[in-house]
Sequence to fold (118 residues):
Amino acid sequence: MQNEWLVILFFLVVSAVVAASAILIAWLLGPKKPNPIKQSQYECGMETVGENWVQFRAQYYIFALVFLVFDVEVAFLFPWALALGQLPLFVVIEGILFIGILLAGLVYVWRKGMLEWV
Fold:
């Protein structure tokens, strides 16, 4: 059993050394010719106008989070739905409970008006 953990430790050490050496080699061999144009902020090839810090509405962030939650939900429910006929009753009930919790969250977000794109 201890040999199995040594193999895992060996691969962890080797992967850390390879990653660190790649970063170090890129830093050592990379060109270093700083100038004001290279150090300026880049935004789609155009010079920035006004302040560089712009506040976005939190609603866009929440909209993206809600999308992510339901996207992950599909990843969890797809295998469950494929094996639905072969699962015991408690697994089916847990899946329905999971869907119910997500629907409650969707209703909450919908009532708060967070799904309306402004």
